[in-house]
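Entry 14. Two folds queued back to back today. First construct below, sequence then structure tokens.
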Amino acid sequence: MIPIVMALDENYALPTCVTIHSILMNASCDTEYKFYLMVTDTLSDASKQKIKMVLEPYPRVQIEYLDMETLFDDAYIPNSSHVSRATYFRFMIPEMLATYDKCIYLDVDIVVCDDLTELYEINLADNYLAGVKSISPVVVDENMEYHKKLEIPSLDQFFNAGVLLMNLSAMRHADLTNELLHETNKENRDDEIFASQGILNKVCYNRILLLPLKFNVPIHKIKRPHTQELINQLFSPDEIEEAANNPIIVHYIGNSKPWNRLFDTFSYHWYKFALSSPFSEEIYRDATKIEQEKGKKAADKFEQSLQKNESLRQRNTQLEQKNESLRQRSTQLEQKNE
């Protein structure tokens, strides 16, 4: 039985359904999963019913909801529309899954393209967790000195916290949850580097196993030319090729989510699973509505631009007329002086 932990609120209920659907669609016949969903009180009964519908074709799959109540209500939240207090829930996993030695943690803005047994069976040795290097300029730009802010020697192990293989027994033995909570509650945490990912990197530094890129592929970064130099600094050519062609986990990092970008070519992997889920019509309808609203906003913006340009044109015409009047007046004065 492979335990998989995810954290969500009502806003991410439908994406969670798609993530679970992708995991189950790609599970080998002898792989068994148990899902632990760390939830806020905003998660509705209707959303729970949707999740139940995803699980119905898979009678051996188990699920358990972990009510996080008011935990992390006062934690620092970056000024980002896609982040909520649920990002900190993973800190509690070692204590809440007390009977497990290890587990997989997944963000819910991902899809899984293969069985997860290979990931789960990786030997963590005495490392607290395993993750994939973060594809961020701060990781390779020492001038930014983020490692000094985090009070660690360097960012050579800095990982993205959206896909984690967690050594729960080692974390419990080191009382890591309390250390993570201590860092969360420190004052003056007003920098995004100190959100959950930064804290995990700080507390777990030097006990981190780096995974191949294929286990956490930010597909929009892998496929775009302007990030190639950075990616080439962080990963080998073989890793990059394998991740691009045969990703195991695709991660939609950042504000831009596939359910809000129906016609983005990088959303292909997500919609491949979303449109084969029990909620394909709802997902397509919502995505289409968002695209229509984007189109209306773009049209309104274009109309405003046209109006502004027309206003500027009229203003320029008035200025030209005024200048012409001044030139004529100047000519008349010159003639009179002669």
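Second construct, same run, same settings:
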Amino acid sequence: MTTTGGAVSGNTVSGNTASGNTGLGNAALDNSVSELIDGAVDRRPASVGVNLYPWDAVGDPDCAARIKDLGAGRVTLAAAYHTVRALTPQHPEHKVVTAAHSAVYYLPDRRRWLGKRLQPVEAFWSPRSFPQAAADLRRAGLSVYAWVVLAHNQRLGTLHPEDSIMNAYGDHYPWALCISSEAVRDYCATLAAEVAEQDGVDGIELESCGWYGFDHLHAHDKTAGVTFDPPSKLLLSLCFCAGCTHGYKEAGINSQALRVAVCDALDRVIAGASPRAELTDPSLAEAVATMRTRAAEQFRDEVIGAVCAVRPDLTVLVHAQPDPLALSANPGATPASLFGPLGADGAVVPCNVRSEASLGMVRAYAERAEPHQSVVSTVSAVAGMGGNRADLSAWCADLRKAGSTELRFYHAGLASRADLAAVREAVAAVRTA
């Protein structure tokens, strides 16, 4: 890391990050979040970056120039990514890429992975495209941050269900690796370190660096028959695998009693008897929240530590939300823990479209960040994925006022020409404000 001590995905469980609206009760939230919501200041000139997949750049000689024309100086480039079907409207050679499973876009070092239960595989549909894309982009004067997805891996969760989240009913979530599993912690730390050592990497971004859960945006998802609010989804995401059962025991929690309480609360929602599932015992809710928060912090520290061990000079950003119980691509990390002595160089905050919740998250991190630490706001640039072109310039300006030090446009490879024009206009407006 560059410090002295220390991801757009819409799959988060809770958008109201600082609200205390969780299935484990208000006591589960770090009080520092609410204390830091107001008073952020715009401290630095805005940096601008975009997200890209390696196949967006490889084979497109105009890609780098197109990115620079937007006013961007940085590309967050996928090095390890989950299953996706992606449109590539600007690419001259293809228009749709299907990533069949979670994979890496470089050649893994098999000596590093020898004897490990969980191992990455290279993407056969775009082999060794990360180093090629990184070299092309850096040659054009763009910095490259490697984008690494950690606990979201359907291939490994399918092959090794014992290392995936298992809910209170005994159902496994193969897309969600459980961070209480020793094999998962080892896999994620090893993967992050391996990516950090790739050529042409100026920084690293860690997505799903914490608890994943029920929400997934899975192909042909059929889960809307019952409406689960954020507290209910949190209970539906509590894990009861062997690693978590051990963690509950160490925390003084009777895992079987907890499992019964969770099922009882969810059963009422499923039956239509209650709109919300929550643990009614405050002491139990607090104990579970503490156990999960500590596990997430330990996991994050191990991953960041693995990166620092091989590249102490490398900037490390973490996709996060201030709510310590938030799940999925941007899991919970309180400002105090994320920017602590063993923490990250910056937070990447989901700010897809205008919302008070997003502004609150940016302010919370901005108030805690030291001058050398970044608060990156990821903004949706694709109208077809929910982006708001008409409000993009004003939204970016408001995020800057809230304390964002970098605007990240998701996603330059998926964007139409009209989307890119709106990004160009937003960047120009922010820089001339």
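Quick look at the second one. DSSP finds 15 helices and 13 strands in the chain. The CA atoms of residues 70 and 424 lie 5 Å apart.
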